[in-house]
Amino acid sequence: MTDVRDLYKYPGDVDAFGFDWGQLSVTLGPTVNGARRFSAAVVTVPPGQGHARHNHPGSEEIIYILEGEGEQMVEDEAGAPHTQTVRAGCAVLIPESRFHSTLNTGERTMRIFVVYAPAGPEEALRDLPDFRLIAREG
Q1: What is the C-alpha to C-alpha distance for residues 85 and 69, in angstroms, rounded to an integer?
Q2: Which of 25, 36, 87, 112 could form a Cys-Cys staple with 43, CB 3.0–4.6 A?
Q3: How far does CA 133 lie from the centroid of its chain?
Q4: How would you classify residue 132: left for phi > 0, otherwise alpha for psi between -120 and 50, otherwise beta?
Q5: What is the dihedral of CA 84, 89, 94, 99, to 10 degrees?
Q6: Chain segment 10-64, per-residue pLDDT in tens
């Protein structure tokens, strides 16, 4: 059984996944606190940075912009890219296995909350060539 204290997580409570384009802190998920059906993370993307086009086979993703602004690309069912400006307060659904990318076009760091269902895509990020583990605060 999960300790009730593990149900509450801040990004600084967990090791972060660092990349050339920013970082991701998995705050909820099977390896963090036993969540079974989804995982969630806080993503930070510095100005001018972004992650390349990719997908999460078998998983849907919810992207919620907490701070900042940028361009979010989501491909349609035929594979054609559609890009829209997003800013704090915007929620984006990435349908299962759909290719997408995010670019910070603003002057400050973007903070994004993401949810994957089912869980798993976050662990695959460890295999990327620019992956590095950033130890949690304190």
Answers
A1: 7
A2: 112
A3: 15
A4: beta
A5: 40
A6: 999 999 999 999 999 999 999 999 999 999 999 999 999 999 999 999 999 999 9
